[in-house]
């Protein structure tokens, strides 16, 4: 199906994009990789009258190390994340995730900013970005603001961004000595996560679990941090039995989704199993 007609605008800078967003506040949409926006437009689930193409905005590209964090430009593609040396060295979890997003074409066009702004409940990055305790840097008419990731995903396809704001970057704390792992059961057709679980573990000097963060996507209508799992393991030895017991808490307190790909009971089981696997693997690779 063809989308409804729209006007096309090409922004050359962040300021220009913001100006266009505020002019077309009720009817404008940013275009990054187009791999989520165009499908929903073709299905006529979204009918923006104005498309603001930001792909030429160079300020939104690139990965830099700034004050103990990696600053990842919103237009960084999945392929760039999968292959960037700074990401591989300091935030390897993101490289691991980027490798399993969609297919080659999706990875070369789709961007991390677009993926987070779209907030698809089956998208991969949200699990990892939550487990890395990242921050989203956004600019709007009132200037810049930093949104902790715990406050960013607010519901199905919904984020804390205002309609006139754009994501400029994602800040990820540099990881040292942590073990990490992303486990995903992929939809065989699209590659999206039926369930995806990211775990980041730091060991204390005595070898116990000093810190643990677990992000889960696909299980319910928005990605979330599995804090009950984390709380039950923090300070413990992280043996196989305790991890198995903790992983069973991963689906507590959420409305597990059921659909043609995975009914509720199956998705619940997958959520628990992938949580156990992700944590065990992260533990194996964490250094004391
Ligand atoms: C066949 C196929 C398979 C896929 N498989 C997977 C998969 O396995 N896992 C996965 O996670 N994803 C998957 N995707 C989605 C893909 O990763 C998209 O690239 C991504 O979700 C959106 O990024 P984009 O740059 O294409 O954004 P766009 O489609 O351009 O934009 C998406 C939304 O974000 C907004 N937006 C874009 N950039 C910004 C910004 N900087 N600030 C604020 N708002 C912004 C747009 O206005 C729009 O509302 C798949 C997509 C396709 C088509």
Automatic annotation (TrEMBL):
<dbReference type="InterPro" id="IPR016167">
    <property type="entry name" value="FAD-bd_PCMH_sub1"/>
</dbReference>
<feature type="domain" description="FAD-binding PCMH-type">
    <location>
        <begin position="1"/>
        <end position="177"/>
    </location>
</feature>
<dbReference type="InterPro" id="IPR002346">
    <property type="entry name" value="Mopterin_DH_FAD-bd"/>
</dbReference>
<keyword id="KW-0285">Flavoprotein</keyword>
<dbReference type="Pfam" id="PF03450">
    <property type="entry name" value="CO_deh_flav_C"/>
</dbReference>
<keyword id="KW-0274">FAD</keyword>
<dbReference type="InterPro" id="IPR036683">
    <property type="entry name" value="CO_DH_flav_C_dom_sf"/>
</dbReference>
<dbReference type="InterPro" id="IPR051312">
    <property type="entry name" value="Diverse_Substr_Oxidored"/>
</dbReference>
<dbReference type="Pfam" id="PF00941">
    <property type="entry name" value="FAD_binding_5"/>
</dbReference>
<dbReference type="GO" id="GO:0008805">
    <property type="term" value="F:carbon-monoxide oxygenase activity"/>
</dbReference>
<dbReference type="GO" id="GO:0071949">
    <property type="term" value="F:FAD binding"/>
</dbReference>
<keyword id="KW-0560">Oxidoreductase</keyword>
<dbReference type="InterPro" id="IPR016166">
    <property type="entry name" value="FAD-bd_PCMH"/>
</dbReference>
<dbReference type="InterPro" id="IPR036318">
    <property type="entry name" value="FAD-bd_PCMH-like_sf"/>
</dbReference>
<protein>
    <submittedName>
        <fullName>Aerobic carbon monoxide dehydrogenase (Quinone), medium chain</fullName>
        <ecNumber>1.2.5.3</ecNumber>
    </submittedName>
</protein>
<dbReference type="InterPro" id="IPR016169">
    <property type="entry name" value="FAD-bd_PCMH_sub2"/>
</dbReference>
<dbReference type="InterPro" id="IPR005107">
    <property type="entry name" value="CO_DH_flav_C"/>
</dbReference>
């Amino acid at each position: 199906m063809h989308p409804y007609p729209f006007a096309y605008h090409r922004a050359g800078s962040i300021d220009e994009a913001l100006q266009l967003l505020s002019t077309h506040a009720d009817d404008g949409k940013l275009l990054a990789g187009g791999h989520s926006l165009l499908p929903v437009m073709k299905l006529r689930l979204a009918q923006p009258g104005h498309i603001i193409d930001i792909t030429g905005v160079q300020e939104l590209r690139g990965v830099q190390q700034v004050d103990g964090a990696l600053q990842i430009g919103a237009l960084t593609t999945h392929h760039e994340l999968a292959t960037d040396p700074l990401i591989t060295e300091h935030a390897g979890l993101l490289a691991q995730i980027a490798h399993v997003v969609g297919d080659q074409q999706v990875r070369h066009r789709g961007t991390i900013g677009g993926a987070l702004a779209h907030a698809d409940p089956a998208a991969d990055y949200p699990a990892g970005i939550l487990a890395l305790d990242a921050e989203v840097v956004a600019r709007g008419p009132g200037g810049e603001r930093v949104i902790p990731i715990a406050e960013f995903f607010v519901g199905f396809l919904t984020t804390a961004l205002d309609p006139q704001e754009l994501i400029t970057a994602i800040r990820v704390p540099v990881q040292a000595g942590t073990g990490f792992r992303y486990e995903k059961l992929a939809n065989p057709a699209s590659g999206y996560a039926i369930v995806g679980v990211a775990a980041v573990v730091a060991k204390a000097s005595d070898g116990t679990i000093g810190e643990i963060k677990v992000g889960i996507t696909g299980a319910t209508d928005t990605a979330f941090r599995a804090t009950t799992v984390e709380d039950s393991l923090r300070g413990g030895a992280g043996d196989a039995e305790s991890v198995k017991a903790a992983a069973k808490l991963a689906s507590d307190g959420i409305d597990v989704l059921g659909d043609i790909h995975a009914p509720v009971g199956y998705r619940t089981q997958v959520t628990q199993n992938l949580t156990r696997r992700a944590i065990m693997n992260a533990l194996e690779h964490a250094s004391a």
